[in-house]
Amino acid sequence: MFQKQAAVFLYAVSPVHMGTGQAIGVVDNPIQRERHTGHPCFAGSGIKGAVRHSFEQLGGDPGLIHDLFGPEAGASELHAGAVSFGDAQLVVLPVRCLKEGFVYATCPQALARAHRLLQLVGAAPGWQPPEQGVAEGSCFVSNEGLLTDGKLHLEAYEYSAATLPAVSEIGAKLAEDAIPTGAEYAFFRQKLKRDLVILSDTDFAFFCEHAMLVEPHVRIDDTTGAADSGGLFYTENLPPESILIGPLMASQVRNPKKTKRENGGLDAADVIAKIRNALDGKLLQLGGDATTGRGLVVARLVNGR
Predict the structure, then answer these.
(1) Contact between residue 19 and residue 29 where contact means Cβ atoms under 8 Å apart
(2) Beta strand 196-199 pairing with 102-106
(3) Mean pLDDT, the chain, as a whole number?
(4) What is the pLDDT of residues 179-213, one digit of tens each?
(5) 263: confidence class by pLDDT, cuts 50, 70, 90
(6) Closest Cα to residue 38, out of 158, 202, 242, 198?
């Protein structure tokens, strides 16, 4: 049983490929998606594995790895780890805009799910999802500078726009919680506060499906000078500037061979603190294609109860 909870924001600063390992469409290596919404997601098992792999490099105590994350597969001593990462769900997706380059897009459904998760872990969201519905083909903005004749243009599509002060308030709190406080992130905190756009659930789902970064990979045969057999394939990536949120849960260390003077004395609050010290504000690599600069995310922890 887990006694402490927190929420983890994952802010992508490079394309991220957390793959499914199979494909039935034209993209050979699609990213993970939720079945019921089609939104990109990160599996909790992948997040936990990445944090475990990087824990020492992130500044964590290597002597804690087995206690926090569990023994290696095949180990003679078996016990449960003290931390659990849940699946991370999409909150904000960058979408190309005619004005200001791009906007941070979201929808009532994604905001309501993030708000619910923050409340479930006992954190204070500090904002409320908009009560007004958003019709298809319409959106809420706070920055009128994004508009042309009252319309917002995203990719090749035009949306009727209405200003709503709550959009800026939501963007400001998300920026405070999800993006680190360093000066190098100031531009993006301000942009998220200023250029957050709330689309309808349907329109947001369309961009979740069709606004991903799809990269061709080609291996050339040295003899023929043409693409090698099987050497041409397409890989899908979640674009940088995407923001996801997932739950983090902790129990006391459950290694029966550790005394209280050792790590066995760590309770759930201590475990959350160890993860926070190692992870909060740090650069983490998730998913595949690490050697090509993919999978770089910055993590932020929001304390729960």
Answers:
(1) yes
(2) parallel
(3) 91
(4) 999 999 999 999 999 999 999 999 999 999 999 99
(5) low
(6) 202
CA distance linking residue 123 with residue 114, whole number of Å: 11
Nearest to 193 by CA among 74, 92, 295: 92
Q: Spell out the residues 6+ positions from residue 184 whose beta carbon is closer than 8 angstroms to its own.
A: none
User: Closest Cα to residue 287, out of 91, 72, 30?
Assistant: 30
Which residues are paired to 237 by β-bridges? 213
The token duo for 174 is: 């998300």
What is the SS3 string spanning the chain?
CCCEEEEEEEEECCCECCECCCCCCCCCECECECCCCCCEEECHHHHHHHHHHHCCCCCCCHHHHHHHHCCCCCCCCCCCCCEEECCEEEEEEEEEECCCCEEEEECHHHHHHHHHHHHHCCCCCCCCCCCCCCCCCEEEECCHHHEECCEEEECCEEEEEEECHHHHHHHHHHHHHHCCCCHHHHHHHHHHHHCEEEECHHHHHHHHHHCCEEEEEEEECCCCCCEEEEEEEEEEEECCCCEEEEEEEECCCCCCCCCCCCHHHCCHHHHHHHHHHHHCCCEEECCCCHHHCCCEEEEEEEECC
Cα R_g (the chain), whole angstroms: 21
Q: Evaluate if pTM is beyond 0.90.
A: yes
Reported as a single tens digit per residue, the pLDDT across 225-261 is 887 877 788 899 999 999 999 999 999 888 777 665 5
Kind plus residue range of the DSSP H or E element containing 102: strand 102-106
How much of the chain, in percent, has pLDDT values that exceed 90? 70
DSSP-derived secondary structure letter, 32: P
Beta bridge partner(s), residue 140: 162, 198
Going by their DSSP bridges, the two strands 83-85 and 88-96 should be labelled as unpaired
Separation of alpha carbons 199 and 205, rounded Å: 9
How long a stretch of residues is the chain? 305
